Amino acid sequence: MTTSMDPSTTVTPPRFRPGSAARRPRPAGGSRAVAFWLGGAVVLLVLLAGLLAPWLAPYDPLAIDPSNPYAGPSGAHWLGTDANGRDVLSRLMHGSASSFRGIAITVGVAGIFGSLWGLVAGYVGGPVDEVLMRLADAVISFPGIVLAIAITGALGPSLLTAMLSVGVVFAPIVARLLRAQVLALRQAEFVLVARSLGVRGWRIALRHVLPNAMGPVVVQLCGLASTALIIEAALGFLGLGVQPPAPSWGPDLARAYADFYVNPLLTVAPGLLITATAFAISQFGDGLRDRLRIG
Fold this sequence. Notes:
- The protein has 295 residues and is an all-alpha fold.
- The protein is built from ten helices and no strands.
- 41% of the residues are buried.
């Protein structure tokens, strides 16, 4: 710890790592380690497929071929075509970009808004803490998907409004977790030293308390990212997310479901991709928790 007798000096504590107070050995390899690396690889592969889709996708995802609807898997169309003759693989690759865009919006809103919410509640305390936490309880008491549908329906269907509403719903979860971490760190030695040197409270909170409290929040956001992917697909399935004909997993699954009796195979690829990606994100988050020695 670096200190100075000058009250204006910024106190820079050693960076806290979750579990560093009672250091445990790094988790041994095994099924959890394999799941962590495999989950990360799947997430990275799907993300890259979306980012590179304009160059890697074999067809234009919006190109219609009325002469070739409901084609089965073949060398020309690896996953077949939909009711309009559009290549399913190309639409899934382009759709992954929409899904990760939705995850980024949700995690960004929940992370920023929820972190500030929890930081103020935990660091200020008193009546402010009580009011903010009762507000968090009120939001959490509503079913998240129902509240997101209500907000999206009021603001209008689009990916941005849908995932912004989901981020607002998730923010109290992040706030409660961060508040608990801030309460534990508020009386830490480096905070007390900073106060004794006259460092302003907001500077202590933002520069020292917040970074040292973010470990569990990062893991929580990974779990919320998995849920956000499923909710994004569900809202798209209901017509409240990405609007046709733009490629997106949820709307594509809805259209495939409508044609289930004509070509049931159309529901397999988007359904499996949503499930596998959400599971991979979840496994990556669990492995990250083990490596950060949280919980």
